[in-house]
Design brief:
By secondary structure, the protein is mainly alpha-helical. It has 1 helix and no strands.
Length: 59
């Protein structure tokens, strides 16, 4: 095994590491988007329920 093999092995490992970092970052972004949508939907549903309850009961 000579020095060029060591460099190519290191480059291969680093490219795999970078791929994993990019994939993890993309996954995090997608999870955050999903979470934000779920919170918005929950908030809209809660507001609609409160509004329907307020309209159903005269004050």
């Amino acid at each position: 095994m000579d020095r060029s093999d060591e460099r190519s092995a290191l480059a291969w490992i680093m490219s795999g590491t970078m791929g994993a970092v990019v994939a993890a970052g993309l996954g995090k972004v997608l999870i955050e988007r999903h979470r934000a949508r779920a919170l918005d939907q929950m908030r809209d549903t809660t507001e609609a329920g409160e509004q329907a309850e307020a309209e159903g009961h005269p004050s």
